[in-house]
């Protein structure tokens, strides 16, 4: 089972793949360091440019960006008290007080070492857990695959928190977009309105760029960030090899936070922010000096940064094996895999072991590279990024979006379609509709429909074919649990509240 | 979309729910022409959208009736609509007059309008971005960009 993992290693250490990883990590740190830009946005802008690249080079770029951005978010969190990414919110609690005390450099070094530790732990978890899980999923037939898709959609809607109605609307919209184009079995046109460009359906990248890249650009132009109060001019950075021995006392926090991050990463819909908060609270609870937390305790930075990076590769465990992404970035990475002809899910490990295992190695190497590329000298340079003029940055991203989407098929129709999705995405973002269910709906919609119709054909039109074996019933039970579980939990909380008031 | 609604039916969520219902209902019309199995999933999704949007509309109207104020959707609507307008204008210009000319004009224009006012910085940034695009995409990746419908005619 793990022999494929070892066999894929030589491919990964090819120069082109390592270079892609280095560029990815650097680009990720830059993007993460820019408040308002996120790994999700960076990868969605990048995906179209990877068309012509070898799959491992493209995936290396994505893995690098994801790892880099999760650390990069700590730079403005520490220096400005503005989290560069949502997952870096907990880093501000102790990182910013440290920067005010002239220890910003040390805070960033703790962040980079902790991020690297979290990333490595996450990559190892992915390597150990994904292969056996993929073996189980190989036994699935069309009915089970249909239920996996339904389970994936339900888990991201109901476990994501927030408004369930809006989550369901997002998912219905995503699934509806997936049916545009030729019918996969009958071949008749659906909702193409005579447009030849829509015959092949709507390319996932067009939707991704529109939904995830355009809204942040509009935000960037709507309210330019002021960075005058940056603590970046007095970082007090010492070489990382001198400060590293002081960090070794965080070993317990690193291990605990890594485990929390991995667990949260595997759960669909949770994500890095939740991992960082849970880990921070847990580390504070078990600290001997909890009163120092919030006033510049480096262990607080270690806890949140380890957890938000431990979430990265772990989120790919359900994504690669079942086709269910744990986070928005994982959903976009699935899109990245699809454009290289790699269908996430049970067959991926059997058909493309060199690529899928190579991708896992790239996560591990990306995490290790963080220490070298985000070390002391680089940390000082990255802190200066905060002074880049944001309107200019916004303009450049708009151009990159246009180039990326245009280059898919070489036609402006896709650009206008992307702008349409961008407008929808902006409204959804502002009205707090979750975006991951849209992407997942698009990815799983076609997949679910094809397998549902295949199962019905096998069962000669009898719908009971969907409930005729144990695996299907287990998946149905899990889906029901995911839907009903949060409702029961809310009821119980409300009941407890009412009782305590009474 | 109204930022500060003056009437309960002009709340952003209510308007959005209304649009979802109208658009989903409109898409149901071509669905009737499809074969039953082909129409199964899209029809389910469209009906689902209509029902869910109705729930959203009723919930929002209940909130309005209870006196709950709608949150401001955008901080500065002028800047948001301006940004959208400029991006659409840029795409149309690329289509009509070509990629390089449009980019050379729109990059400094957008950055200038949204607050970056250094002429030297704008000129340098525009030159660097155009050169980088030409070398990376045009030369090394042989990517062809729109040359402009106007010139083609």
From TrEMBL, chain A:
Entry annotated with the keyword Transmembrane helix: yes
Domain DUF112: 19-440
Keywords annotated in UniProt: Membrane, Transmembrane, Transmembrane helix
TM regions (residue ranges): 12-33, 45-66, 106-129, 136-161, 167-186, 198-218, 254-278, 313-339, 359-379, 391-409, 466-488
Domain of life according to the entry: Bacteria
One Pfam family this sequence matches: TctA
InterPro entries reported in the protein's UniProt record: DUF112_TM (IPR002823)
Protein name as catalogued: Putative tricarboxylic transport membrane protein
Organism of this sequence: Cohaesibacter marisflavi
UniProtKB/TrEMBL annotation, chain B:
Protein name listed in UniProt: Tripartite tricarboxylate transporter TctB family protein
Alphabetically ordered keywords of this record: Membrane, Transmembrane, Transmembrane helix
TM helices/strands, residue ranges: 12-31, 37-59, 80-101, 121-139
Native source organism of the sequence: Cohaesibacter marisflavi
Domain spans labelled DUF1468: 18-142
Record Pfam families: TctB
